């Protein structure tokens, strides 16, 4: 005899009873997942039991030392990481930090990553067309005169810098000699007179010193002609779902998100500080979790996501990205003894005494130092015994 399926109303009513033991958000998510799914009474019962069991497995006891467990869970696998600094992506176009160097980079909240990069997703009409994807990549990559020049000569006698442009490079980038001249016009005040003859551009410098000519030569070579400032390289790669994605070396998230061809809902920068400035602190928190998980997964290490969430929360809870160190989380603890226990002990103690700070003994470190009960586990409970 075939099983009878429950109606959607019956399924909803049964799941609503779980609000007595589960958070409302979790119950609502379960309702959304089971929407328009046909279930028998027996199947629904199994689903409900499985969800409740998983929930109770995920909760922690009051007073559990989640910070210490998090530190152990992230610290222990990191000792097994391969100490490789660079890994070449795609066709060896550019490199990116992986493993322990990248993990340290994230935890230290480095202002400038070793290799700043972006992953740019395109809208459907561009993501499945290789030619259009390459056109977008060409528009994104910053093109300087150095990329377009066949040779750059300095005439010290006449104080002139002569740039011979590469026709093939101009044609590939869809640029002309006039575009290069317009870029040079932006520094005309410092450069002097600019003359164009065929594929050659002469720039007269208003100085005769050799050092000034060399400085102007370097400035001219780094002058941007097209593209987005900060994007040094752009590489188009095909993903497993037949979608073309652009990977870049260098970042400029704000400018990239303004492009009509770019899918702004998925495009990300791997520079956490840039994400915080452009998209906000919540986006930076999510980025920290994703980056930590990506590093650990790449090394084949399994760490509970909640521990990574804890690290991200601690780094971002006050509205800005802070490192886990004496210039960040550890150095900004309320407890003077906890700050002194981490680094620069004497300096922290002298400053605390000078400022008249008081020790509340609410954390783990300061209680261990003073030989008191640590406020975790059984030490978390405070009872007063009344004598008869």
From TrEMBL:
<dbReference type="Pfam" id="PF04998">
    <property type="entry name" value="RNA_pol_Rpb1_5"/>
</dbReference>
<dbReference type="GO" id="GO:0005737">
    <property type="term" value="C:cytoplasm"/>
</dbReference>
<feature type="domain" description="RNA polymerase Rpb1">
    <location>
        <begin position="48"/>
        <end position="334"/>
    </location>
</feature>
<keyword id="KW-0548">Nucleotidyltransferase</keyword>
<dbReference type="InterPro" id="IPR045867">
    <property type="entry name" value="DNA-dir_RpoC_beta_prime"/>
</dbReference>
<dbReference type="InterPro" id="IPR007081">
    <property type="entry name" value="RNA_pol_Rpb1_5"/>
</dbReference>
<dbReference type="GO" id="GO:0003677">
    <property type="term" value="F:DNA binding"/>
</dbReference>
<dbReference type="GO" id="GO:0000428">
    <property type="term" value="C:DNA-directed RNA polymerase complex"/>
</dbReference>
<dbReference type="GO" id="GO:0006351">
    <property type="term" value="P:DNA-templated transcription"/>
</dbReference>
<dbReference type="GO" id="GO:0003899">
    <property type="term" value="F:DNA-directed RNA polymerase activity"/>
</dbReference>
<keyword id="KW-0804">Transcription</keyword>
<keyword id="KW-0808">Transferase</keyword>
<keyword id="KW-0963">Cytoplasm</keyword>
<keyword id="KW-0238">DNA-binding</keyword>
<comment type="subunit">
    <text>Part of the RNA polymerase complex.</text>
</comment>
<dbReference type="InterPro" id="IPR012757">
    <property type="entry name" value="RPO1C"/>
</dbReference>
<comment type="function">
    <text>DNA-dependent RNA polymerase (RNAP) catalyzes the transcription of DNA into RNA using the four ribonucleoside triphosphates as substrates. Forms part of the jaw domain.</text>
</comment>
<protein>
    <recommendedName>
        <fullName>DNA-directed RNA polymerase subunit Rpo1C</fullName>
        <ecNumber>2.7.7.6</ecNumber>
    </recommendedName>
</protein>
<keyword id="KW-0240">DNA-directed RNA polymerase</keyword>
<comment type="similarity">
    <text>Belongs to the RNA polymerase beta' chain family.</text>
</comment>
């Amino acid at each position: 005899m075939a099983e009878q399926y429950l109606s959607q109303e019956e399924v909803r009513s049964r799941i609503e009873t779980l609000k007595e033991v589960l958070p409302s958000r979790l119950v609502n998510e379960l309702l959304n997942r089971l929407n328009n799914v046909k279930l028998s009474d027996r199947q629904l019962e199994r689903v409900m039991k499985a969800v409740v069991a998983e929930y109770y497995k995920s909760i922690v006891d009051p007073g559990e030392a989640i910070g210490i467990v998090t530190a152990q869970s992230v610290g222990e696998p990191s000792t097994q990481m391969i100490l490789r600094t660079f890994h070449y992506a795609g066709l060896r176009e550019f490199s990116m930090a992986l493993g322990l160097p990248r993990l340290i980079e994230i935890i230290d909240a480095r202002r400038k990553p070793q290799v700043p990069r972006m992953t740019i997703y395109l809208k459907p009409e561009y993501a499945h067309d290789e030619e259009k994807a390459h056109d977008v990549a060409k528009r994104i990559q910053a093109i300087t005169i150095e990329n377009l020049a066949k040779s750059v000569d300095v005439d010290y006698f006449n104080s002139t810098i002569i740039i011979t442009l590469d026709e093939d490079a101009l044609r590939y980038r869809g640029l002309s000699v006039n575009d290069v001249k317009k870029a040079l016009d932006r520094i005309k005040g410092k450069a002097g007179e600019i003359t164009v003859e065929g594929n050659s551009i002469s720039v007269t410098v208003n100085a005769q010193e050799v050092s000034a000519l060399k400085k102007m030569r370097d400035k001219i070579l780094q002058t941007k002609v097209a593209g987005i400032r900060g994007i040094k390289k752009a590489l188009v790669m095909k993903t497993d779902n037949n979608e073309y994605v652009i990977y870049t070396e260098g970042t400029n998230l704000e400018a990239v998100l303004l492009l009509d061809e770019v899918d702004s809902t998925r495009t990300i920068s791997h520079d956490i500080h840039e994400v915080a400035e452009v998209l906000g602190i919540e986006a930076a928190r999510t980025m920290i979790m994703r980056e930590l998980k990506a590093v650990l997964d790449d090394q084949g290490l399994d760490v509970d996501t909640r521990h990574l969430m804890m690290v991200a929360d601690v780094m971002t809870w006050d509205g800005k990205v802070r490192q886990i160190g004496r210039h960040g989380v550890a150095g900004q603890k309320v407890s003077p003894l906890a700050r002194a226990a981490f680094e620069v002990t004497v300096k922290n103690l002298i400053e605390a005494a000078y400022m008249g700070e008081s020790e509340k003994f609410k954390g783990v470190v300061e209680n261990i130092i003073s030989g008191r009960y640590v406020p975790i586990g059984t030490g978390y409970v405070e009872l007063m015994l009344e004598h008869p």
